Amino acid sequence: MLKIEKLSVSYGDTQVIWDVDIEVKEGEVVTLLGPNGAGKTTLMKTICGLVPAKSGGITFLGEDLLKINPWDRPKKGVVLIPEGRKLFGKMTVEENLTIAAWKEEGKKETLEWIYDTLPRLAERRKQLAGTMSGGEQQMCAIARGIMAQPKLLMLDEPSLGLAPLIVEQVFDLIQKLQERGITVFFVEQFVEQSLKIASRGYLLEGGRIVLHEDSKSMLNNDYVRQVYLGIA
Amino acid sequence: MGILALVLLVVYFLPLTVFARHILVLTLFYAFMGTGWNLMCGYAGRLSLGHAAFVAVGAYTSLLLFSHFSLTPWIGMIAGGLVAVVVMMLIAYPSFRFGLIGPYFTLASIAVAEIVHYLLIYGRDLTGGSLGMSLPYVKETTIINSLINLQFDGKEPYYLVILGFWLVGLLVTWKMERTRYYLEAIREDQDAAAALGISVNKNLIIAACISAFMVAIGGTFYVQYFRYIDPYSIAGFTLSLNMALVAVIGGSGTLFGPTIGAFLLIPLTEILRMTLGAQIPGLHLFLYGILLVVCIIFLPKGIASLPGIIRAKKAKNDQKPENQASKGVL
Amino acid sequence: MLLQIIASGLLLGGIYALVSVGLNLIFGVIKIVNLAHGDFLMMAMYGTFFLYTVQGINPYVSTLIIFPAFVLIGVLIFRLIIKPLLGKAETEVNTIIATAGLGFVLQNLALMLWKSDFRAIETNLTGKSYEFAGIMLSAGRTWAFVVCVAVAVLLYYILMKTKVGTHVRAVSQDTEAATLMGINVNKIYTLTFAFGIALVGLAGVILTPTFYVYPTVGLYFNTMAFIIVVLGGLGSFTGALIGGLIIGLIESFAGVMASAELAQVFSLLIFLIILFVRPQGIMGKSARV
Amino acid sequence: MKRFIGILMLVVFMMVAVVGCEKQPEADGDKAAGDIKIHVGVIEPVTGPQAPLGQAEYDGIQMAIEMINEKGGVMGKYPITFDFADSQSDPAIGASEAERLITSKGVPVLMGSYSSAIAAAISEVAERNKVVLWEMSGAADSLLLKGYEWTFRNEANASAWGAESVEFIMGNDAAIQEKLGKSAKDLVVAIVHEDGPYGAAVADGNRATAKKYNMNVAVDEAYSAKSVDLSSIILKIKSANPDVLLLTGYVNDGILFNRQAKELGLTVPILITHSGGHSVQAFVDGVGKDADFLMTVDPVPCNPNTEGFSAEYAAIFEEFVSRWTDKFGVPPYHHVEYRQFAQTMLFFNEIVPAAIEASGEFTAEAVAEAIRNADIPAENSLMGHGAKFSTPDKPWTDPWLGNQHTGQNYEARAFINQYFDGTLVTVWPENLAKQEAVLFLPAEHPLARK
Amino acid sequence: MAEKILAIENICKSFGGLLATNDVSFNVNKGEILGIIGPNGAGKSTVFNLITGFYPIDSGSITYKDQRIDGLTPDKICHLGITRTFQVAKPFPGLTIADNILVACLPKAAKVSDARAKVDEVLKIVSLDKKADVLGADLTTLERKRLELGKALATNPEILLLDEVMTGLKPKEMDDMMDLIRELKKTKTIVIVEHVMRVIMNISDRIIVLDHGQKIAEGLPKEIAENNAVIEAYLGRGAKKDA
Question: Is D45's pLDDT higher than 60?
């Protein structure tokens, strides 16, 4: 579904992504792991067009994504829920949700599904998004992404800054997405939990993919265990 | 800087027409004013479009002192500078205290200049209102008296005076190396600067006050040179804008940026007006406007950034076999 | 007398508000200071003037021509001048300088095209007024006031209730998130700028019957428009309206009670005080930029 | 850094090359009579806020020079050439341009310069360079109170205009008694003026003269001509309910005042405006029929009875009117263009010939001397008054403010013109009057008191 | 008992209705490395902001060497000898790396030339010497972290408050960094907020655990690792923080 080949990205003269190859197949949940500063967010942004690629290619369903305007990519089915949520704080929850719904078809049904799944949001539909708690905001941000009816939903650190209970809810929600037929590609800090819901994982370090295995082997990988799980 | 001063001294001895000298004086005047403006607005990034307020305060103070008490402008300009500093404190302190930045600061500065402008008109008993004031013309026989009164018959002495001011202005800016670094840091990230032990408000206020002091001294020079001031020309938006223009077009936040800007823009405006002003009214300003827009679009960091751009281009070109000439750009 | 002062102040405020609505939109969404604002006003006034004197088109009707024309001009200016400057460290300063340059261009273009003469038109509203319980309401200004309120209401509706409006608000809050939601930020910017310019055009049209036009007439509205925008709060149209009315009242009262010369000093001082204590403006919700 | 300095040096030399190459002006030395070259500098604001009237002034000057040159030039044999400079409505630029005209074009005479502020700046330059400034429109008194030797003004100073209007009212005591039932000196007067140098000076004349007659000045207010709203001032006038409104402003505020006064229902029996704003074509265009019956005090009789001029000047006047009408489509019965034309004519037809006859050359000194010695009868000036100039040795003390003026034509006076059917006609004084003044605004005027 | 250099007593801070720091007290002893841990949003960075004067405290007191420093501005606190780094690195984007460091050296240098002389040394410590002429804006996140540390070191503080300096480092780099911090410990007191458990457990002399703005535990690393409250609140959620 999403195929990244030999992708390199730089900021100014500084290259941050080096020849990255990633593939996400339809219906999969894939996680991208790596320390801060490894280039995970940059990679996500490049897929969405917020950061231009230097070389290499990104295809989505056979289409060259790099040739599509950033703002048209959601319409192709590629949606990113950015790090730090980036809700429109001065708009109501419902406005935040509907703004992403570029397609009339299925809009109502999706909204209903969201309100069913996340009753908190239904309660707060008229509240300004900026006044909600962090967890509610994150839910709203994910819901906003869902409203775009994506084929591939990407999440950049959805659990960042959330209370543990909420983090679990977030992971629950991600699993529900899979049930809805949405392919998920996400960046996380919680390695163990992430690998539990993902089928495969990529490990990005210093802008390069250093490891790519299915979740189980990754969880058992010595290097991962030592560095990221703190298990010596 | 030494070479530069030397060149300009040599220019002094060239057989120039009076008008060419006049343009040189104006150019140096704006180079000086731009340098003063640059300290606060370039280095510290607080864009003021109301600096004319301080020019006016300086000019009127020294002129009033001279015409009422025959106080030499040399002392008058210090007095004017101090009054300007007081006015600046009135606006700068609350601005920095309340963290006014970006367009808000710019708008506040415009408002201050407008207030000064209106008050100068309103206080017509003291300031002559919108008619302005003339410098009492003292015909002097000795050089010493001319110097004391800062009034000369030819352009040459003014040229030397403003050359001196400009050099001092540059020197002050140059000597304030530490403060300059602080200001740049504050411009780039106020919190990070504070965390490193840089007092944000103190440095901003120092910069603002020196900036106001410098342009106020420029105001005194303006009085002595034009011998006439009125609120429209000395507290008006045009003067404020011109100070900003020379600095920004030249490269704000750099030592020589305002000077470069002044040396490009001032002769250009004069030449445009001289050649086109009498032909089709408005054409010269029309072209000037277009030039500003084009300049900003293609050189957003000012002319001072040109060497860097050329170097970067050259570095890229050097990798390729053909080597482009970079001299044609200016 | 007191009521008359209030009425005059409010009508003046209406004009100020009308002139500043377009600026508010541009300043609020794109966050640039358009120093050529008043000059666009001037261009629109010239347009109205010539449509009236040459083609005999009633100024209020010429809105139908000026408004779309200014949308086009806005698009053009945005593409040519504003867009290349956006998204850089120097954007703020450079847009100010560039629009100042644009101001020179427009003023002197008008001068070259139409000479420097004062031009004013007389319509059936010029110099007329409606009397209401002994209070005289200037006809032209009353209509300007009505238009201003209508524009504010309409804009509020567009921004709050329509899809485009929501997109505009989204872009004004977070351009990156807006892009991720499939909003073409560039398009919204172009639209906002064009619409903002067109609103200035509208203000020019409405002002022409009660005013006069010459190449630098816009200068006098510029500062006032900025004051009102900041006073009312960025992106808040009710704020712009209220800001305009407040300034109108201040000037009206200061003019009668103190001196007409000091009226502007008063409004400038109020502006500074508001800027210091409540930078988000009277109605604005966002804090400092 | 070195590169910067290099660039800077390059720019400096580029500039020097462009500007410095201009030739130094040739000194106008002693020359044979045939070699006399009459070359002057003209400074007017043709861009910026003052451009509207500045351009009209420039047109008036050009037409006078054109007419003289068609007849072979000054004295029929010395054609006039001039260099024009745009002051951009900015005194500092005016001064800068004056400097350029003097030093690089070598002009011994400057003419202009529209506003009093610009005139003040230019007069400084003229004084320093010992060049004549023939000031034709900067009317503020203060311009000539500094004891300058080289600035001359032929027309009446602004306070004289203000004095004239009050004197005119006093002279109509009988009519006022009849209509308002009180004597002229008991009238309630409102003085309203723009706060620029010219407005303030006119108001000084109004005030001083009204004080002289012990009139009741109920309103004395200044406003900025830039103002976009005059309602507060109109409300102030309205509540004072004056018998006479003495108004001084520019065009834009003049139009605005008229419109807002109508809207706010201001009425006043006698309305006298002081030129600047009200005596220009743009004002008539702006207010249309409302201009009718407005009286304006001008330094020239705008549309006089030509019997007051000598035959030669009557003919020049007729030619001017027809030429102007042909060229611009409207007659030049407004003070701006007429004033410039008349004074340019006076300068080249009376002053310059006298200078050439006396000294055989066209130099600043010769011209200044000719001006100081001038005694031109009223009939030889289209200004409607004669010309004798005060000097630093013999200053003229004006009778209403008591200031000492140097370089002022103390024969000068102001005139009252009145609009009839959209055209200004001279109504005062009697020898130049074409029509009788209508003192009270007639009922059909929107501002008339019913 | 070691000499107490910084005493935080009962500090509270709320934003709007949210209590970010609730009655937190702890001491910092001279020459130690004090680790502060806690889940995201526990108030760790807020504590740093309060100590360094970026936010005024609502109540309580902060005492540094017998001097009350609450209420002082950040720059004054820095001058007294307490320097912090920011969790989200704050380089001066328009300045080169060398100038970034220079700016940091300046406030405590007598002459600009002194500060300049110190730049290279600091650059080497944080291994940015090859990037001296690069603009702050053009750094990768990792380099920004290093620059952040470099700037803090340049102010030559007595107490160094490090906010997640390890994040983004590879194991080898982490070891280097730990060595560096241990080296620094010889002359400075260090308070470190960190996510990487391996690091914090290894390096800290003492550890404080914050949760929801409250201090829930304090003790030696070993004690913390065994503390039930901590395990429940922080470690015991099945997943440990990666970095």
Answer: yes
C-beta of residue C231 within 8 angstroms of C-beta of residue C282: yes
**Encoded amino acid at D11, one letter:** V
Instruction: Tell me which CATH code domain C2-277 carries.
Output: 1.10.3470
- Least CB–CB distance from B195: residue in E74, E93, E108: E74
Enter the pTM of the model: 0.88
Q: Rounded to whole angstroms, what are the CA distances from E118 to E97, E100, E111, E181, E183?
A: 13, 12, 11, 19, 18
The residue type found at D400 is W
Name which of B130, B260, B278 is nearest D85 (Cβ-Cβ).
Answer: B278
Residue B23: its pLDDT value, please?
Answer: 87
Chain B residue at shortest CA distance from D8: B260
**Residue carrying the six token digits 């500090």:** E11
Please give the CATH superfamily to which domain E4-90+160-242 belongs: P-loop containing nucleotide triphosphate hydrolases (3.40.50.300)
**Where do we find the tokens 């604005």?**
C284
What amino acid is encoded at D353 in this protein?
P
The residue type of E154 is A
Kindly state the percentage of chain D with pLDDT values over 90.
Answer: 62
d(CA D264, CA D24) in angstroms, rounded, equals 60
Contact between A99 and C167 using a beta-carbon 8 Å cutoff: yes
Question: Quick one: which H or E segment has residue D111?
Answer: strand D109-112
pLDDT for position B304: 82
Residue D4: its pLDDT value, please?
59
- The domain locations on chain E are 4-90+160-242
Q: Range with the lowest mean pLDDT among D27-36, D67-76, D187-196?
A: D27-36
Residue C250 CA to residue C239 CA, distance in Å, equals 16
Contacts of D222 in chain C (CB under 8 A): 259-261
- Tell me the sheet residues that pair with E27: E7
Which of D195, D221, D228, D241 best probes binding to C when mutated, by most C CB atoms within 10 angstroms?
D228
Query: Is the pLDDT score of E119 beyond 70?
Result: yes
Task: Kindly provide the residue ranges of all beta strands, DSSP E only, lying in D215-331, ordered along the sequence.
Answer: 216-223, 244-248, 270-274, 295-298
* pLDDT tens-digit readout, C46-86: 999 999 989 888 888 899 999 999 999 999 999 999 999 99
- Is 60 exceeded by the pLDDT of residue D26? no
Share of chain E above pLDDT 90, in %: 19
Q: Indicate the range of A84-88, A124-128, D374-378 predicted with least confidence.
A: A84-88
**Does A229 score more than 70 pLDDT?**
no
Q: Which parts of chain B register pLDDT below 70?
A: 1-2, 140, 316-330
Q: Is residue B217 a contact partner of residue B85, using CB atoms and an 8 Å limit? A: no
Residue E166 to chain A, least CA–CA distance (Å):
9
Give just the sign of the alpha carbon dihedral C136, C141, C145, C150.
Answer: positive
Structure tokens at D32: 């044979």
Q: Do B22 and D93 touch (CB under 8 A)?
A: no
Q: Which of residues 89-108 of B touch C (CB under 8 A)?
A: 91, 94-95, 98-104, 106-108
Q: Which domains does chain D have, with CATH numbers?
A: 33-156+313-413 (3.40.50.2300), 159-298+416-428 (3.40.50.2300)
Phi, psi of E13 (to 5 degrees): -155, 130
Q: Cα(B85)–Cα(A184) distance, rounded to whole angstroms?
A: 61
Closest Cβ–Cβ partner in D9, D15, D85 for B277: D85
Distance of alpha carbon C85 from alpha carbon D104, whole angstroms: 41
Classify domain A1-77+181-232 by CATH number. Answer: 3.40.50.300
Domain assignments of chain C as residue spans, ordered by start: 2-277
Mean pLDDT, to the nearest integer, of D330-337?
A: 88
Q: Whose structure tokens read 């009788």?
A: D436
Calpha distance C71→C9 (Å, rounded): 31
Q: Are C12 and C245 in contact (CB under 8 A)?
A: no
Q: Where does the pLDDT of residue C264 fall: very low under 50, low under 70, confident under 90, or very high at 90 and above?
A: confident
